[in-house]
Amino acid sequence: MRTLSTLRILAGALLLSPLLTPAAARAGRVRRPEAPGHQSFVSPQSNPIVVSADGSRVFVANTTSNTVSILETAPLRQRRQVEVGLEPVSLALRPGGRELWVSNHVSDSVSVVDVDPSSASFGLVVETVQALDPHGATLFDEPVGIAFASADKAYVALSSRNQVAVIDANTYQVTGWISIGVGAVLLIMPGITVHLLFVLVGIWAVFQGGSLFMLSRDFPNGDPDRSLLTGIAIAGVLIGLLLIFWPGSGAVAISWVIAVVALVTGSMLVYMGLHLRRAGRAL
What we know:
This protein is of the alpha+beta class. 38% of the residues lie in helices and 25% in strands.
């Protein structure tokens, strides 16, 4: 019993000693101040590395330095470092391999870099894709992913707008917009469906259906994706016309239909984007 009591007293003394003598307990400790640093607010990368079709070159987006590195693989060395826009986050090679498209997340633009080694402008930004409203404000907010339907048409995901910009790859002009956000809003808040909103949604649905119909023309005849996309486009146009001319007919019920159709359409566009990305890599 005495031994057990002695051990308890010793254990208590050891536990209390740092509290009773803090100066002695810390006398031999070496103080190491925390290294200075800062919170990083760098844009998230999406597809920052791409490889040429023949494997001879690698392209890397350097987000924090606003540049893109062009590397040769045999031997491994940096051939050129190209200054692009602010915070490049995603890269894509245009079919044919002569142009590298770069999404600049903060600059709200896409830089087109000439990567043809035989060109006099090799390693230079030869075009910049942007879109501005009449007041000079950007309509091309925070671009991220890039996918090519062909050498003539590109799609760029605009992260803060929930839209996909359709771009003519020959003129470098934005020719259309595909929205995927309205369906989610209506599904979450069906109570906002007043007559005016339904008319506006109807106009959007008609425009969306027309855009999807044009998109389906890019797929070959007999492709099941073309038939599916055409069917969704026709359904969107019909529902849009119904909402424009009869906005009060079953408002809440129709809002759920529109929400589901819009979400299905958005999912299809995401699938098409991944499909086109794989096809671009195969080229």
